[in-house]
Fold these 2 entries.
Entry 1:
Amino acid sequence: MKASTRSTTGRVEEFHRIVFEWFAKHGRDLPWRRTTDPYAIALSEIMSQQTQVDRVIPKWRAFLLAFPTWTDLADASTADVIRLWQGLGYNRRAVMLHRLAKAVIDNGGELPNDIDVMKELPGIGDYTANAIATFAFRNSNAAPVDTNISRIFRRVFPRHQSDPKSIQRLAQSIAPIDTWTWNHALMDIGALHCSSRGHVWGLCPLAPLHGSKEPKMALQPLKKPLTPFKETDRYFRGRIVDALRECPITFKKLHSRSELVNLDEVRFQTLISKLVNGGVVERRGNTVFLAGDR
C-alpha cells in the first residue's frame, strides 16, 4: 500500500471516530429523527432549507397535525398550505411541497427509494433526494451534501478538489456502514461548528484533523448586505403574501398598506407578477389572492 493511501485511510478512520464520538455526546434530539415515515422526513428536509431548526420544529408538528399524510396534503388547497407555512419564509417552497404531494399521489402514493427518480419530482433536488434516501430508507448509497457538510469536507481534506461533484464523490466514497448516524452527525457539526457565520477552530471537534494543536480563531466576518433586508424584494414579497393570508384584496388596497405604500407602482406590479409566476398568488381582474384560494 502506498504511503499516501495509508495516510488517507488513517485520516478517514480518525474522521469517523471523532464524528461518531462527538455525536454520541452532543447530537441534537430532533423530532423527525424519531420517525421512519418518509413523508414526515421529507417534510422536515424541505422545511429546513434555509430555515433555522428552532423555527421548523413547531411548523413541522403543525403540518403533521393538519396534513398527516401525502393524501391530506395533496387534497388541501395551495392557499391553505401557504397559510400554514407562515413563518418559514420562501413561500414558493410551500407551493412546491404541495405540488410534490400531488405528484406522489399520482405516482402510487409513496416516495420511491431511488435518488434519481426522486429528483424528478417537484421540489426535490440532489441534496434533498440524498437526505430522504438516507434518513427515510437507510440507503447506504446516499450522501446528502449541503453547504455546511461541503465545508467540513473541504476543511478535513483540503487537498481534495472542492467542486460540488468532487465533494459528492468523496462523501460517498468514505461513508461508513451506519450512514444514518453519520449523516445526522455531519449535519449537526456543520450547523453548530462549521457554519458560514464563523468557525472557532480550537473548539471544533474536527480541530485535530485541521492540524491545529492549540485553540485558534478563524472567524469569517459576515458580509454586510448591500441593501437592508426591509428594502429587499424578498421582504416585500413576504409582506404581500402575509396580507393575502388574511383574505383576497384589491390591488389598490394592497398597495396602500403601510408596509407597501412606499413602493413605486412599477416595482409593486413586478413583485406581484413574480409571485404569480411562482404559483404563490393569483390575480383575477382587480383582485389578488393566494393561489388556490376559494
Note: Confidence is low (pLDDT under 50) at residues 1-6, 212-221.
Entry 2:
Amino acid sequence: MQTADLLKKVRKIEIKARGLSSHLFTGGYHSAFKGRGMSFSEVRLYYPGDDVRAIDWNVTARTGEPYIKVFEEERENTVMLLVDLSGSTAFGSHAQFKEEYLTELCAVLAFSAIANNDKVGVVLFSDRIELFIPPKKGKQHILRIIREILSAKPSGRGTDLAGALRFMHNVLKKRSVCFLLSDFLADRYEDALRILANRHDCIGIHCWDMLERDLPDVGVLRVADAESGEQAWLDTTSTRLRHQYQHTFEVHRSATQAMFRRAGADFLSLCTNQPYVRALLRFFAQRSKIVAHG
C-alpha cells in the first residue's frame, strides 16, 4: 500500500471510528470496566453516619473537629489489543475481509479508551509476535496503531494464540483490560488464556464470515486452507455436507465460548455482516450491570 493510500485509509477509519466510539463511550464503555482501585481525593468534615474508620486523626487533632478521608476510584486503565494477523483473517465474502473488520473494531475500542483517559497498547501476532506497541495515551498514538495494523505484512501465516497470550502476560506488569481479537482457529491455548485471565480482565472478540458457517450450493469447489495451504475438493450439492459444515462451525464457536467462560473471561462473537457497535453497546451494558453489583 502506497503511503498516500495508507494515510487516506487511516483518515477514513479515524473519522468513522471516532464517531462510533462516542456512542460506545456514552453507551457504557466508561462504566463497563473497573478502575485500578481507590485513591485519596480530599478530607472533609465528618457527618453522622460516615464510616468512623475513615476519620483522619491527624487533621482532626489539628483542627479540633472530626474530619474524614474521601477516596475515589482510579478510572485510568491500561487497554491492550491482541490482534490476529494469521492467514485465515484475510478472508471475506461480505463487504469486508475479517482483517478489515478487526481493524475497525480496534480503532473504535482504542478511541473509546482514550476518551476514558486510558492507555492503549497492541500486540499483533500470527504464528509469532509480529509487533508490540507499548501502551500510551493520545490521538497520535492511536493513529499509529491503526497505521501499523493496516500496513502490517505478517511474516507468519499460522496462528500461535498460546504464544501470543503468554507474551501478553509477560509484558503486562499491572492489571489491564485485554481485548483478544481473532477468529480463534487455533488449539491448545486454554492454559495460557486461563493464566492471563486470572490476572487481567480478558474479553475475546470472535470474528467470522458467513461463508465459514453457511456453505452455498454451488457445485464442486476446490478450497484451500489459508494458513497451511492444504487443498481439497468439496461437493457443495451435498445437503449432508452442508449440514455437517454448519455443525462443525457451531461446535467450534460453542467450545470456544465455553473455554473463555471456564477461564473467567468474556466472549463476544461477531459476524462481519453484523453492525458491531450495536453488539458492543449490548455487551458494555451487560458488563456495567456486573461491575455495579460486583
Note: The longest strand covers residues 37-45.
